[in-house]
Amino acid sequence: MSVKLSACIVAYNNYEDIKDAIASMEQFTSPELTKKIYIVDNGVAISSPSDVEELRRYIEKWGDIEYIDAGQNLGFGKGHNTVLGKIDSDYHAIVNPDILFCEDAFSKVIAWMDEHNDVGMVIPDIIDEYGKRQLVYREELTVFDMFVRFFCKGLFPGRIRKHTLQDKDYSKPFQVPFGQGSFLVVKTNLFKELNGFDDNFFMYVEDADLCKRVNQVSKLMYFPGARIIHKWEKGSHGNKILFKYHVQSMKYYFKKWGVKII
Predict the structure, then answer these.
(1) How many C-beta neighbours within 10 Å does residue 172 have?
(2) What is the domain partition of the chain in residue ranges?
(3) What topology does CATH give the domain 3-257?
(4) Cβ atoms of residues 21 and 9 within 8 Å
(5) Which of 5, 20, 216, 249 could form a disulfide with 204 if both were Cys (CB 3.0 to 4.6 A apart)?
(6) 116-138 CB burial, b ≥16 within 10 A, e <16
(7) Strand-strand pairing, 35-41 and 65-69
(8) What is the pTM of this model?
(9) What gap in Å lies between CA 188 and CA 196, rounded to an integer?
(10) pLDDT, tens only, 164-210
(11) Are 214 and 220 in contact (CB under 8 A)?
């Protein structure tokens, strides 16, 4: 069945966050917006069977959500790509489990995109739980910026400010080189044409890659007219395994696109 919006959340043993995300999405999204939500579960093998069953029962309360057991941990991008062959919509949303809705963001974003045919993907105003705008809008990745981020944040405040676009006018739309992938709305036909995320990324940096590919053929735009809350649990900071994934992804990204030092 064709719908205006499809959305995907990839789960990994974070069911309470997902239930909160679903509840807020259903509460604030207009019933006039036809939608289909997919929950792709990467973490069944490490989750309690009772927790999985509880999530599935919770999902059944809503008539527009489908649960998919991925069978293994596919990673972030490949998990989202699971639904590529299923989605039949005008727009598709990439949604993190730690997102909360505080207004009808979907309807606002889609109405704006309907009026701007040159825009292929949108990232809205993303704030934390205290109302502060998050630093999710960035320049393209460079080796220097990633090194500063991980090893010497306090030494280059001006560079961090530049990389995270802090001097932009956030009262107006503007094109974004790289929008962090916690909440993105993309034209479904474009997402399919690009074959979704690059499966060679297991975790991290796949959003930078997708944004770059979108901007090559269309535009990724910041849209100030819709707001989303992101709790943002920064997994790779202080976790050696996740940090390793981050480094591997950066190496693949720079191999694919060429090394940009500064």
Answers:
(1) 9
(2) 3-257
(3) Spore Coat Polysaccharide Biosynthesis Protein SpsA; Chain A (3.90.550)
(4) yes
(5) 249
(6) eeebbbbbbbbbeeeeeebebbb
(7) parallel
(8) 0.95
(9) 9
(10) 999 999 999 999 999 999 999 999 999 999 999 999 999 899 999 99
(11) yes
